[in-house]
Amino acid sequence: MGTLLVKMFWSFVRISPMTFGGGYAMIPLLEREFVEKRQWITREEMSSGLAVAGSAPGGIGVNAAAFIGYRMKGVPGAAAAILGITLPTFFIVLVLGLAFAQVQHHPKAAAALAGIQAGVAALILVSAYNMGRSSLVDRGTMITAAAALVLLLLGVHPIGLIAAGLLLGHAAVLFRVKREGGRLLRQEASAAAAAPSYKYADYYIADGI
């Protein structure tokens, strides 16, 4: 257990300094490290974790790190992940804050920041594409995503969209159970029998939303 915690901590330490532009720019790096390279979690688990991380208060990068750490090693894993993701950026921001006051009006510094912002936009688009591949699985999810995008562009607060999504998702499940009845319950029972068992707390933290 200790070895895995150390590996996880250093993985987040390496990722943290490369995430210019905030937590959303970190998502492709998290996917590459933990889904593709180390295969510690699946792409579906990552998408679920990002949905929870984006809905919860706080930065999505730290929330996603806590989710990954908890899924792997419970509370100690979450603590190791949060420390790994926050410590490097704390010291980097401290140094940059002192230096930026001296160079903020320099043309080369302004040009560098403009280039970084363009790169961050590309990283966010890649993250949206990867999430869409595993989250937009049928007509209902596609319509929901399109409607949410339109409402965001119209200025609706994200909290309102999250609350509406929870209510609509719950209503859709109830409608499906009522319409399909026993067949759906048998399918879910078969899937549950084949799936790995989780602790009670895992359901709410990782899979419940």
Oligomer: single chain
Summing up helix and strand content along with how strands pair, one would put the structural category as mainly alpha
Average pLDDT score = 76
**What order do the helices and strands follow?**
HHHHHHHHH
Summary, kept brief:
With 209 residues, the protein is an all-alpha fold. The protein is 83% helix and 0% strand.
Write structural notes for this entry:
The protein has 209 residues and is mostly helical. It folds into two domains: 1-135, no CATH class; 137-209, no CATH class. Helix content is 83%, strand content 0%. The protein starts with a helix and ends with a helix. Mean pLDDT is 76; it is low at 192-209.
Which terms would index this structure?
CHR_Transporter, membrane, disordered C terminus, mainly alpha, single chain, 83% helix, 209 residues, 2 domains, Chromate transporter
